[in-house]
Amino acid sequence: MNVDPQLLPLINDLNASLTRRQFFRKSAMGLGVAALSSLLGPKALGAETDFWRIAPKAKRAIYISLIGAPSQLDLFDYKAGLRARFKEDLKDWLKQQGERLTGMTSGQQKFPLAPSAFKFGQYGPGGAWISELLPWHAKMAGDLCFIRSMHTDAINHEPANQLIYTGSMITGKASMGSWVSYGLGSLNKDLPTFVVLHASHSSPYSNVQAISSRLWGSGFLPGKYSGVDLRAKGDPVLYIKDSPGISRDMRREMIEGISALNERSYAAIGDPEIQTRTQQFEMAFRMQASIPELTDFSGESEKTYDLYGADAKVRGTFANSALMARRLTERGVRFVQIFHRGWDQHGQLPRDLSSQCKDVDQGCYGLIQDLKQRGMLEDTLVVWGGEFGRTVYCQGKLEEKDYGRDHHPRCFTVWMAGGGVKPGFVYGQTDEMSYNIVENPVHVHELHATMLHQLGIDNEKLTFTYQGLAQKLTGVEPAKVVTDILA
Amino acid sequence: MAVAAVALAFVRLAAADTNTISYNNQIGPILSEHCFRCHGPDSASRKPKKHPLRLDVEKYAYELRDDGKPVIIKGNPGASELVRRITATDDDVMPPASEQKTMTAGEIALIKQWIAQGGKYEKQWSLIAPTKPALPADGAGWARNPIDNFTARKMAQNGLKPNPREDKARLYRRLSFDLTGLPPNPADLEAFVRSDSDGAYEKAVDRMLASDASAEQFARGWLDAVRYADTQGIHLDFARSMWPYRDWVINAYKSNMPFDQFTIEQIAGDMLPNATDDQKIASGYNRLLETTSEGGAIPEEYAAIYAKDRVDTTTAVWLGLTAGCATCHDHKFDPISQKEYYSLTAFFRNNTTSILDGPTGNNAPLLFVPLREDAAEWKQLKEAIGTTRESIKAREKSSEPAFQKWLARTKARPNSHAVKIKAELELPLAEGPSAGEAEGKKIAWNGGGTRKAGPFGLAPLLSGGGIVDGATPVIARNGQASYGAFIYVEDKPTGSVISRMDASAGYRGWDLYLSEGRLFAHIVDQFPEKSLKISAKQALSPGHWHHVMVVFDGRREGAEALALYVDGLKAEVQVDNNSLGPNIIANVPLRLGGRSSKDGPADVLSGGSVYLQDVRFYDKALDGSDIARLALGGLARDPGMAKAGAALEDLYLLGYDATSEKLETKVAALEARQEVLRKRGGTTLVMEEKADSKPKAYVLIRGNYTTKGDEVFPGTPAALPPMTSDEPRNRLGLARWIMSRQDPLVARVTVNRLWGQLFGNGIVETTSDFGVMGARPTDQDLLDWLAVDFMDSGWNFRHVVKTIVMSATYQQSDAISPEKLERDPLNKWLSRGPHIRLDAEEIRDQALAASGLLVDRVGGPSVKPYQPEGVWESVAMMQSDTRVYKQDTGPLLYRRSLYTFWKRTAPPANMEILNAPSRETFCTRRDRTDTPLQALVTLNDTQFVEAARHIADRAILSATNFDSRLDEITEPLIARSMAPDERAVMRKMEQHFLAKYEKDPADAKALIGVGESQIDTKVPPAELAAWTLVASEVLNLDETLTK
């Protein structure tokens, strides 16, 4: 068959994109370049035609997701005045606030105020408050940009996680990482574009919330954009390991055989998708070689381990995942998301939050310093945060050193680093209770818009038509980029 | 340059017929893309605010504007404001720059031409009821049925000619996958290829369509659409028993249930008059959605989410409407207002299900359903139990006089309670010394103080846990025993009543025990891990004499071995421990009122008083009538019991009336059998309408459940034919309305989805969006013909499937010439057969079928085949009952993939990688992408490697030479034998691998050890291993993975 070889990848992609409904509709009117590029993905056409592209500050991103919602009151949003108001019943005050309460505390008779049990200090040029639970964060405060005025629409985990990781509380949307894959394509040939890590948590008491692949799935976007789990248990990538008794040479011969026989089918049938499929087998073979290389940490120096801490040598810990995130981004993975669960402190917060912080503190430090030392931090955007905040009032029993906090959607803290955001900066302000935002609110959609902006994507323009609507990560209403925090 | 080549091909196609401009085909899509966001159905966003302009409805588009003219002047594009605005070069231009949309010159020209031709609107094509179009003359000599006349016309219009008929074997394989989801059976294939008969193909179609496999295949597609799964899906993601619904769907396809009935029973089966169990099971459709048990979840919020999910799914699956777009505002493009949307939700907001699930995935209402193979027996049992119970009642009535006579006699003769069988041990504890008899020897109890009047005289108070001298009744592990007494309690005593148990040796032995007045029976090897323990659900009522008996039958399984009788009747018990060890004999004395330990009595009764009389021990398991008589003998004399005449009569019948006894025994046997069936059956979630309230809902402003707007009642969108006035405004009415012959959508949507399953693309590509923003049909006449034919056939689904596969269009070869690739890369005009990758389930089922591992069983609970470790654990909550994946063993590993347990938050890994949906939301068409992870599944998944070994084994055993063996492998998988050049590749591989495995036998052993099934073959390991890889190679060919 005489097809221009230049055309083949394009046609292959076209076939692969059969599911994209716009194709039929738009083709009836003739395809504009813009429409075509939205069909084929940016890689096929080159950057100049990607109309959603803007000058990027970051080439890649690492999102550290603390599932369960870390308490802003005990980590970053210090309220000195609360200590004196220990146990004050906020019942009437809460009524004036008009916020919904979850099913877990709506029946409480009293809503006693629970000041943080922890000591705080101010660090970095921006004077960020950081709790004693995060000493390594204190050390790197000069690298971080805190947004203390995040807010969300959801008050329970499931919808809140979906909102912050897929842009909508409704199931079926595309995850943030898949949007980035879709918009920017891959930077490498042998590894997935979007990789998900699940870090273990060490406390047996942690209240562990469920997560599911919908938080890193591709939703309505084609399946190839969904996040690939790099697992801490068993094979790092599902089915990556050949069955016992098969050598690399044998596998190579099999893949070559498949290619040869498929080529014959292609000659007979002429469907370019046959070649696409052959390419997947070849890429699978390359991945089988690149994944062991990726997961082999023997080349990492002791100096590096000093940054991340000894935990980094134990597979699956947060520190180990953080180091893996660096290795992944170094090898051209676009988007890495680390999930760490167990941050839902409804009771015994001081005990459990301490343990959670211990899990992640030095790993975060190591990651930022490591990226910095390798010159990667400037074009790698790192984001750290949960799905909502926690209440100033106590859930359950209240003692000075023992209390719990319920879900709170109206304010929480997220930090960012690298990728063109202001280092050593604190943004946004909450009221004396860390209950309402009084200055510079940032909605989840705006966080997304800002992240996409730094990655070189205009969030208003990167769309995918599904169910009759030009879907966007940032939803229907325009979401503004938080330019105040940009360097 | 590459772009231009592809784009050009489409421009050429699009320009094909431009004589009369059609609003629906040409203008509507331009206006909806560029104008309707501000000038469309959504009243809230319509502009300009002062005098909103609406262009989607003819009436409004021609309204006079401020300048006294409409924006469109019919026949005069030059004078039309609309044209001026879309061609403006200044700020007046439409759409405005802020919309970032620009009309092309071609689009502007079309609009001008349309206005010049009169600017006529048409209703959205999909909302006009289909009529059967006339058959085109095209396709003469080629067409096999009307489908082909339509496709031939489109091909001719687009300069295409049909492909020749597909190679017979390839066609048969395609048919087999499409109709059954399985590869063809080699014998059937060969017969078909050899047959010259014209009717052979049709016969094959009919045979396949009638098979169980076909029902399973079409059921699977439906389960995608309605998002069937085995867990809740949200948060805790508890397991949910829903498989009877899946069985119902399979049965429906098997019996070719008419699609209208299929629809009505699912949407409202529970509301049909005298709804059968099957219809209630079908109503489980309404329960398939994702639900939550999350602790903090707010019921109001989820009530809104659930109603929305149900409406979105129902409208998408049956009507192809994206109604969900009207959740927050009027639909931007389609005629569904927000109010209409919430009126639809009202249909689903009047059911008895509690909103939040509680700590289980099985939220009531539930229905018990026996296994498919037990269904007939279950029904018979239910009937038999009913009639037997009636007979018992009748017998009771007729025996009344006899009972009264017996009662009078018994009261008059105090010692007439004798039982025919002899006890091993009898200790009357009535008057005089506390002596008795055991195996003919005298025994005596030394305890007891205060006495109380009992049925047979003064009974002693138990105190101190004294020994019964000379008594050593033995219960053997596999033996039988019955022991008990008459007992009288005051307050809430705790402690052992009768025991031969060693508290200092792990409580070995047996006893009858009281805990705060509640009866327990223990048979113990080591407590608690090797013991049986049951307890009565009700405490003994204090202040009365009761008869109590424990019956042990060591030959029965688990807790079945132990029963407790109170007042002559089997008591309701809970099973506390259920795993008895082998050693239960304790060489300690028999005690009353306590247990034995090293230091004397232990667990002595306290907290209340217990009097005892007529202690008995039998070395056999007494039956119900024996126990009834024992109980009656005493109870009939107790003044407290005299009141409870009915209870005595029951006992009398049980104990002395042979007819009643026989009937009771019969009921007991039937119920025992029912219990067996119940255990292996399961429950399913069903829908149930509230009887005492009418459905209603509120408009939720911006979709937010906390901001309620107007109250609304069930209603259907005005743009569709109205519900007739005699239909009830509830789910049943809704279901019938959807299936009304006037509905323009349902038949089209259904045949289109089927078309998409068979050809890879629907005639309307957006299978769940037939609205303005959805794709246009590539051939509306074809779609309408199929839709009307479907309705005319009486909604006969199988008829439509058959019509499609009988067409010449379907039977074309799938080869793509370079010319066709350029002209029609996506096969819109159907000038070739489909060439598409198999679905995930088909790929796995093919490997199972070809290897002979496939277990041919239909229906039943979901199964858990191989899955890599940690897939569930890495996402699940500690409290979830689907946190740890416990793989099944044996035949359950090899069921068809539609029976695989579907955990929504972590779907079966190999299925998900191959694009199976998560079943969280409705899916009317699967994504089909190519990724390297898919290659890894078919290369490395245990299931595929194990299947390859079985395929290899069979091939080796069936022939001695290389070529025949290879044929054995390829024929079931690709329906052909390989050509010489292909054989050369395979041959070389086989030789290399054989040499390697002969050198490294350990590697060979390792490879053929993959999978649970045993290696039970005479084939040498090296040969089997080498051929396993040959089979694996064939399993991974494009030809194998596609149809």
Task: Kindly describe this structure.
The complex is a heterodimer of chains A (487) and B (1043). With 487 residues, chain A is an alpha/beta fold. Chain A has 15 helices and 17 strands. In chain A, the strands form five sheets. In chain A, strands 1, 4, 5, 6, 7, 8, 11, 12 and 15 form a nine-stranded mixed β-sheet that branches. In chain A, strands 2-3 form a two-stranded antiparallel sheet. Mean pLDDT of chain A is 87; it is low at 1-49. Chain B starts with a helix and ends with a helix. In chain B, 39% of the residues lie in helices and 13% in strands. The radius of gyration of chain B is 38 Å and the shape is globular. In chain B, α8 packs parallel to α10 (200-209) and α15 crosses α16. Chain B has 1043 residues and is of the alpha+beta class. In chain B, β12 and β13 (562-566) form a beta hairpin. Chains A and B meet through α1, α2, α10 and α11 of A and α1, α28, α29, α32 and α33 of B.
Rounded average pLDDT of chain B: 91
Number of helices of chain A: 15
Major sheet details of chain A: 9 strands, mixed
Largest interface: A-B, 104 and 131 residues
Shape of chain B: globular
Coarse structural class of chain A: alpha/beta
Binned, the helix content of chain A reads 25-40%
Q: What does the main sheet of chain B amount to?
A: 14 strands, antiparallel
Number of strands of chain A: 17
Distance between the termini of chain A: 53 Å
The oligomerization state is heterodimer
| Class from helix and strand fractions of chain B | alpha+beta
Strand content of chain A: 15-25%
Total of helices of chain B: 35
Terminal-residue CA separation of chain B: 33 Å
Query: Which term fits the overall shape of chain A?
Result: globular
Strand content of chain B: 5-15%
Please state the CA-atom Rg of chain B, rounded to the nearest Å: 38 Å
Radius of gyration of chain A over all CA atoms, rounded: 24 Å
| Low-confidence residue ranges of chain A | 1-49
Low-confidence stretches of chain B: 1-17
